[in-house]
Structure formats: C-alpha cells, structure tokens
From TrEMBL:
InterPro entries cross-referenced by the UniProt entry: GntR_C, TF_FadR/GntR_C, Tscrpt_reg_HTH_GntR, WH-like_DNA-bd_sf, WH_DNA-bd_sf
Chain segments annotated as transmembrane: none
Domain of life: Bacteria
Keywords: DNA-binding, Transcription, Transcription regulation
Biased composition (Polar residues): 220-231
Name of this protein: GntR family transcriptional regulator
CDD domains found in the cross-reference section: WHTH_GntR (cd07377)
Renumbered residue ranges of the record's region Disordered: 212-231
Annotated ranges, domain HTH gntR-type: 2-69
Pfam families hit by this protein: FCD (PF07729), GntR (PF00392)
Length: 231
C-alpha cells in the first residue's frame, strides 16, 4: 500500500518543529524512508512540500537540508500572524457556521475552567485548537492554510512562555467568540489584534548555538500511523 505523501510530510514537519533534526542537517531520502517505514517516493514528495513551506532547502552537493532561518525571517512570521489572525476573526464573524460557534464556545468554557484552576498543561493545546477553529470559521481555505503554516513555523523558531494572565487571556478568547457570534467583524478584529499582540510578547527566539539551549532527544521514533489509512 502506498502511504500518502501528506502523512509523511506531517511526520517530518513535526520532527523538525520538535528539534529532532538540527537546523542545517541533511535529510536523506533513504534514512527518512527507513525511519518512517515508507518508500522513498512519498519522502521525495514530502521534501518538495516542506521546501515550499520553508522548512527545507536544497543545497548543492548536499541535497535536502533543514532550513536555517534568520532572526529577521522569524520576526517577519510574528508580524504576519499579527496581521492575519485579526483578518481571520473578522471573516469568521461574517462566515462562521453554528458548528464553528459550538466548538469555539466549548473551547472557551474549557479554557476558562482550566485557567481558573491553574491547570496550565492543557491551555496551550486548547489555545491552538481555538485559533485553528477560528481560522476555519473564516471560510477561506487559503487563509486557514497560511495561518496553519505560520503556527508550525513559529512553534519551530520560538519558545513560548506561559502567559502571565491565563484568566485574562481566555476572557479575550471569550470576547472574540461573542463578537463572531454577533457578526461584529470590526469588534472581532480589534479584540483579536490586541490578543495576538499580547501573546506575541511571550515568544522567545530559539538560538541553536546557545550553550543554555535545552537539549532535545533526537533518537525518538516517529512512524507514520497507517492504521487509519486502511479504514
């Protein structure tokens, strides 16, 4: 059975973001195919996709390598997100469905509950889910895809400190959903812009060469889960 390239792409991207592959390190088709238990064909296709996304570069005499973005490129990503997240919220206020609202409200309830209890472990994943759903509610596949790529690359380039005021942060999430539910695109845009600006302040650039960088485990296996593909 041929494994879809997008599944291999997701696995490689996740490992790049997690630091399994050092920036600048070579990504050989043979080793990647062995690691993920697939043939070289989906690996080759995945590397082309990852190169288009900016995670991989092709170098003469070296082949595919993990990209080494500059500090300016990393800063540009945060600026792009600060522009696009509010746009997505404004579009969501115009195009959201009841299903989107149901999920967003449920996430806000969970986030506010976890924030009040001081349970920070779940807050990051809930926040990611919230913003992914908000982007999907914009009704724009291109915008949703662009924001998803930005989130992946920002997670790769930045470490994020725990928010100083998680209760206030989730109150902002609630305000965004209220504006989206009312169809108030300008209000949704304004609250999201303020929320994104505050969240951006918690990002700290990862410097691969720093001595105090947390060492990551690079021997973990990340096989492609093909069980669901057989269904």
């Amino acid at each position: 059975m041929r494994i879809p390239a997008h599944s291999v792409c997701t696995a490689i991207r996740d490992d790049i973001v997690a630091g399994v592959y050092e920036r600048g390190s070579r990504l050989t088709e043979e080793l990647l195919a062995r690691r993920y238990g697939v043939s070289r064909v989906p690996v080759r296709e995945a590397l082309r996709t990852l190169e288009a996304e900016g995670f991989v570069v092709t170098r003469r005499h070296a082949g595919a390598c993990v990209a080494e973005p500059t500090e300016q490129e990393a800063a540009d990503l945060l600026e792009m997100r600060m522009l696009l997240e509010p746009l997505g919220a404004a579009r969501a206020a115009q195009r959201r469905t009841e299903a989107h609202l149901k999920v967003l409200r449920g996430l806000v309830r969970l986030g506010q509950e976890r924030a009040r209890r001081g349970n920070s472990d779940d807050l990051r994943s809930l926040g990611s889910w919230f913003h992914e759903t908000l982007a999907q509610a914009s009704g724009s596949p291109a915008l949703t895809s662009t924001l998803a790529q930005l989130r992946h690359k920002i997670a790769w380039m930045y470490a994020v400190e725990a928010p100083a005021g998680p209760v206030e942060s989730w109150a902002e999430h609630g305000g965004i959903v209220d504006a989206v539910a009312r169809g108030d695109s300008e209000r949704a845009r304004t609250i999201t812009a303020l929320h994104t600006e505050r969240a951006t302040a918690a990002h700290r650039l990862r410097f691969p060469g720093r001595a105090d960088r947390t060492e990551r485990v690079r021997t973990s296996q990340h096989p492609v889960n093909i069980t669901s593909l057989r269904d």
